[in-house]
Amino acid sequence: MCRLIALALLLITSSSLAEEASQKLTPVSIKLHWQHQFQFAGIYAAKEQGYYQDAGLAVTILTGQKAPFNDVEAGNVEFGISGAGLVVERLKGRPFVALAAIFQSSPYTWLVRADSSITQPTDFVGKTVTRQSYADDLSAMLLRFGIDPSQLNIVDPSPEDIDNLIDGKVDALTAYISNEPFQMLSRGVDYRTLSPHEYNINFYSDIIFTSERYLKRQPGDVEAFHSATLRGWQYALEHPYEMVDLILKNYNTQNKTRAHLEFEAEKLSELSLYPTVSLGHMTIERWQKIAEHYQHLGLVNDDQALNGFIYDTTPGVSIWFKWLVVSLGILALLTMIGYFIKRHHAKILS
């Protein structure tokens, strides 16, 4: 009887402690720039593996149809995911901070049939292509070869894009490397891609970002979210089939097949360059180069105002520590001066 009472008390105490611990978690939200798929596997891993909870965060994952610039700037969500167009918003004066770039190369590509006469960018002249406005690196790729949009027959994307490409009604599609190519394979049609990074146009993609205001107000939460998310991505890239199982179980709102999700996992893992490149890696030099491409496209006038754009992961030094270092330096200097004055007087007296 005593054991049963003790066990009951233990369960009640454990439940209370767990409830108290959950109440201490800081609620934050991240808004994706598309619907659930392997593209966001690291976010799911961080949540399902408890990395966010370990970091003191209760994270809500929201889906979307475009980069959540307005939501992050307005404070409706604390974090968002965007393509490289984030730098355009920053250069236009919007106070965004890039925390990490998950993919080191853009997933956007030109998709053509394997038997197409398009084998290089100059072959696009006079061809009928679909064009999606947010795939700016594809425009930069053509611009590098002196091709103006007026030299193409540009048509709007449609749900029949794959059929139109297969039937020859269009010559090339703006595609996402992990989606439309799989649809071609599933239809038994060979394809070829022409990607910007093959022509030395390397845009970052899937950039996790926040606002300057939130970073200044909650630097600890930003650091916790940043670290836990990269930890989640490491887990996802090291356990892709487990993540496919998880997506099929909890996140498959697009009703993708296992084969499609495994195809996504393979293609997107390649773009992360992990483990050759550390997860989230960014440099201001490369962002500057990306900004220059946007300037050439006429989307920004100034490509220089990027101070503070990249999140600084260097641990901050407290003002008290700085004061202590300066004080000790002054004390050491005064001690040395006193020593030399005393020694000088001793020489005179002798």
The total of beta strands comes to 10
Helix content: 40-55%
Average pLDDT metric: 89
* Class derived from helix and strand content: alpha/beta
The H/E string reads HEHHEHEHEEEHEHEHEEHHHHHH
Strand portion = 5-15%
Low-confidence stretches: 5-14, 16-21, 315-323
Basic shape: globular
The largest sheet, given as strand count, sense and whether it forms a barrel, is: 5 strands, mixed
Q: Biggest sheet: strands side by side, in what order?
A: 2-1-3-10-4
User: Given the structure, what is the number of helices?
Assistant: 14
The Cα radius of gyration reads 27 Å
First-last Cα distance: 93 Å
Descriptive overview:
The structure is a single chain. With 350 residues, this protein is α/β, with parallel strands linked by helices. It is 47% helix and 15% strand. It has 14 helices and ten strands. The protein has helices spanning 2-23, 41-48, 51-54, 69-74, 86-91, 136-144, 161-167, 180-186, 212-217, 219-238, 240-251, 258-272, 284-296, 319-349; strands at residues 26-31, 57-62, 79-82, 96-103, 108-113, 128-130, 153-155, 173-176, 191-194, 205-211. The strands form three sheets. It has a five-stranded mixed sheet. The protein has a three-stranded antiparallel sheet with strand order 8-5-9. Helix 2 packs across helix 10 (219-238) and helix 11 (240-251) packs across helix 12. It is globular. The termini are far apart. Residues 5-14, 16-21 and 315-323 have low confidence and may be disordered.
